[in-house]
UniProtKB/TrEMBL annotation:
The keyword Signal applies. It comes from Sinomonas cellulolyticus. InterPro entries: Immunoprotect_excell_Ig-like (IPR029050). The lineage of its organism: Bacteria, Bacillati, Actinomycetota, Actinomycetes, Micrococcales. Residues 24-43 are annotated as: Disordered. It comes from the Bacteria. Residues 24-37 have a biased composition (Low complexity). This is DUF4352 domain-containing protein. Keywords: Signal.
Amino acid sequence: MSRPPGRLTIRCLFSAQAAAGEAAPGASAPSSAPAGEKSSRGNLIKKVGEPASQTYNGETVATFVVKSIDAGAACTAQYAQQPKNGQIVVATFDVETTAALAKTITKDFSLNMFGWKAIVGNGTTVNGNIVPFMCLDSAEELPHTMGPGEKATGKLAFDVPAGAGTLVYTAPGAPAGWEWSY
Protein backbone atom coordinates (compact mmCIF):
# COMPACT_ATOMS: atom_id res chain seq x y z
CA MET A 1 0.00 0.00 0.00
CA SER A 2 1.58 3.27 -1.04
CA ARG A 3 0.94 6.53 0.72
CA PRO A 4 0.85 10.00 -0.82
CA PRO A 5 3.96 12.12 -0.18
CA GLY A 6 3.88 13.96 3.12
CA ARG A 7 1.47 11.56 4.82
CA LEU A 8 1.70 11.60 8.61
CA THR A 9 1.13 8.29 10.34
CA ILE A 10 1.27 7.00 13.87
CA ARG A 11 2.54 3.67 15.02
CA CYS A 12 3.48 1.80 18.10
CA LEU A 13 5.84 -1.09 18.69
CA PHE A 14 2.83 -3.35 19.20
CA SER A 15 0.60 -2.47 16.24
CA ALA A 16 -2.65 -4.14 15.27
CA GLN A 17 -1.40 -4.24 11.68
CA ALA A 18 1.56 -6.39 12.73
CA ALA A 19 -0.76 -8.82 14.48
CA ALA A 20 -2.82 -9.14 11.30
CA GLY A 21 0.32 -9.91 9.30
CA GLU A 22 0.51 -6.48 7.66
CA ALA A 23 3.55 -4.27 7.92
CA ALA A 24 2.95 -1.00 9.71
CA PRO A 25 4.09 1.98 7.61
CA GLY A 26 7.82 2.33 8.08
CA ALA A 27 7.86 -0.31 10.81
CA SER A 28 8.61 -3.96 11.24
CA ALA A 29 7.29 -5.18 14.56
CA PRO A 30 8.81 -8.37 15.94
CA SER A 31 6.60 -11.35 15.21
CA SER A 32 6.42 -12.14 18.93
CA ALA A 33 5.04 -8.69 19.77
CA PRO A 34 1.45 -8.64 21.08
CA ALA A 35 -1.19 -6.85 19.02
CA GLY A 36 -1.85 -3.19 19.69
CA GLU A 37 -5.39 -2.97 20.94
CA LYS A 38 -7.60 -0.20 19.57
CA SER A 39 -10.35 1.60 21.44
CA SER A 40 -13.86 2.01 20.09
CA ARG A 41 -12.63 5.48 19.03
CA GLY A 42 -9.97 3.92 16.76
CA ASN A 43 -7.01 5.00 18.92
CA LEU A 44 -4.17 2.74 20.01
CA ILE A 45 -4.60 1.93 23.69
CA LYS A 46 -1.31 2.50 25.49
CA LYS A 47 -0.11 1.62 28.96
CA VAL A 48 2.36 3.66 30.97
CA GLY A 49 5.83 2.74 29.75
CA GLU A 50 4.81 1.63 26.23
CA PRO A 51 6.53 3.61 23.47
CA ALA A 52 4.63 5.26 20.62
CA SER A 53 6.09 6.85 17.53
CA GLN A 54 5.12 9.16 14.75
CA THR A 55 6.30 8.66 11.19
CA TYR A 56 6.43 10.85 8.13
CA ASN A 57 6.73 9.23 4.68
CA GLY A 58 7.57 5.93 6.39
CA GLU A 59 10.39 7.28 8.57
CA THR A 60 10.16 7.60 12.34
CA VAL A 61 10.39 11.28 13.26
CA ALA A 62 9.58 11.07 16.98
CA THR A 63 9.16 8.47 19.70
CA PHE A 64 7.58 9.18 23.06
CA VAL A 65 6.76 7.26 26.22
CA VAL A 66 4.35 8.21 29.00
CA LYS A 67 6.48 7.34 32.03
CA SER A 68 3.80 8.06 34.64
CA ILE A 69 0.32 9.49 35.11
CA ASP A 70 -0.50 11.12 38.44
CA ALA A 71 -4.23 11.73 38.99
CA GLY A 72 -5.04 14.25 41.69
CA ALA A 73 -1.70 16.03 41.29
CA ALA A 74 -1.09 19.62 42.34
CA CYS A 75 -0.07 22.49 40.10
CA THR A 76 3.43 23.75 40.88
CA ALA A 77 3.56 27.14 39.11
CA GLN A 78 3.74 30.17 41.38
CA TYR A 79 0.44 31.66 40.14
CA ALA A 80 -1.42 28.43 39.40
CA GLN A 81 -5.19 28.44 39.78
CA GLN A 82 -7.43 25.73 41.16
CA PRO A 83 -8.69 23.19 38.61
CA LYS A 84 -11.93 24.24 36.90
CA ASN A 85 -13.01 20.72 35.93
CA GLY A 86 -12.28 18.91 39.20
CA GLN A 87 -8.73 17.54 39.32
CA ILE A 88 -5.28 17.93 37.83
CA VAL A 89 -3.74 14.91 36.11
CA VAL A 90 -0.01 15.16 35.34
CA ALA A 91 1.68 12.92 32.79
CA THR A 92 5.48 12.62 32.57
CA PHE A 93 7.01 11.97 29.15
CA ASP A 94 10.29 10.94 27.56
CA VAL A 95 10.46 12.23 23.98
CA GLU A 96 13.11 11.73 21.31
CA THR A 97 13.10 13.08 17.77
CA THR A 98 15.16 11.81 14.84
CA ALA A 99 17.02 13.54 12.03
CA ALA A 100 14.11 12.58 9.72
CA LEU A 101 12.02 15.27 11.46
CA ALA A 102 13.90 17.82 9.33
CA LYS A 103 12.13 16.37 6.24
CA THR A 104 8.64 17.19 7.55
CA ILE A 105 6.70 20.30 6.61
CA THR A 106 6.94 21.88 10.06
CA LYS A 107 10.39 20.51 10.97
CA ASP A 108 9.35 20.26 14.62
CA PHE A 109 7.49 17.91 16.95
CA SER A 110 5.10 18.82 19.71
CA LEU A 111 2.70 17.11 22.07
CA ASN A 112 0.88 20.41 22.07
CA MET A 113 -2.25 21.30 23.96
CA PHE A 114 -4.48 21.32 20.88
CA GLY A 115 -4.04 17.60 20.23
CA TRP A 116 -5.31 16.48 23.65
CA LYS A 117 -8.77 15.64 24.93
CA ALA A 118 -10.12 13.80 27.96
CA ILE A 119 -12.95 11.32 28.13
CA VAL A 120 -14.55 10.61 31.51
CA GLY A 121 -15.53 7.14 32.70
CA ASN A 122 -19.05 7.26 31.19
CA GLY A 123 -17.65 8.04 27.71
CA THR A 124 -18.35 11.79 27.71
CA THR A 125 -15.70 13.98 26.10
CA VAL A 126 -14.71 16.95 28.28
CA ASN A 127 -15.63 20.31 26.71
CA GLY A 128 -13.03 22.99 26.11
CA ASN A 129 -9.29 23.08 26.51
CA ILE A 130 -8.12 20.61 29.17
CA VAL A 131 -4.53 21.89 29.32
CA PRO A 132 -4.46 24.53 32.07
CA PHE A 133 -2.49 27.72 31.57
CA MET A 134 0.41 28.11 34.02
CA CYS A 135 -0.13 24.94 36.05
CA LEU A 136 3.38 23.53 36.06
CA ASP A 137 6.58 25.34 36.86
CA SER A 138 8.35 25.93 33.52
CA ALA A 139 11.35 23.83 34.61
CA GLU A 140 9.05 20.78 34.82
CA GLU A 141 7.11 21.27 31.58
CA LEU A 142 7.74 19.31 28.42
CA PRO A 143 9.18 21.69 25.80
CA HIS A 144 6.46 23.20 23.62
CA THR A 145 8.31 22.15 20.44
CA MET A 146 11.34 20.05 19.62
CA GLY A 147 13.57 20.00 16.55
CA PRO A 148 15.36 17.11 14.82
CA GLY A 149 17.72 14.96 16.91
CA GLU A 150 16.54 16.18 20.33
CA LYS A 151 15.59 14.44 23.58
CA ALA A 152 13.49 15.75 26.45
CA THR A 153 11.81 14.62 29.63
CA GLY A 154 8.98 16.71 30.98
CA LYS A 155 5.40 16.92 32.16
CA LEU A 156 2.03 18.01 30.84
CA ALA A 157 -0.87 18.87 33.13
CA PHE A 158 -4.54 18.30 32.37
CA ASP A 159 -7.57 19.80 34.11
CA VAL A 160 -10.19 17.03 34.02
CA PRO A 161 -13.27 16.00 36.00
CA ALA A 162 -12.64 14.07 39.22
CA GLY A 163 -12.53 10.30 38.90
CA ALA A 164 -11.15 7.91 36.32
CA GLY A 165 -10.93 8.73 32.65
CA THR A 166 -8.87 8.57 29.49
CA LEU A 167 -6.38 11.02 27.98
CA VAL A 168 -6.31 11.00 24.16
CA TYR A 169 -3.63 12.54 21.96
CA THR A 170 -4.03 12.85 18.19
CA ALA A 171 -1.27 14.54 16.21
CA PRO A 172 -2.41 17.17 13.70
CA GLY A 173 -3.21 15.46 10.40
CA ALA A 174 -2.99 11.94 11.82
CA PRO A 175 -5.84 9.50 11.13
CA ALA A 176 -5.98 8.28 14.74
CA GLY A 177 -4.20 8.76 18.05
CA TRP A 178 -3.17 7.14 21.28
CA GLU A 179 -4.96 6.93 24.61
CA TRP A 180 -4.02 6.27 28.22
CA SER A 181 -6.30 5.55 31.17
CA TYR A 182 -5.88 7.40 34.47
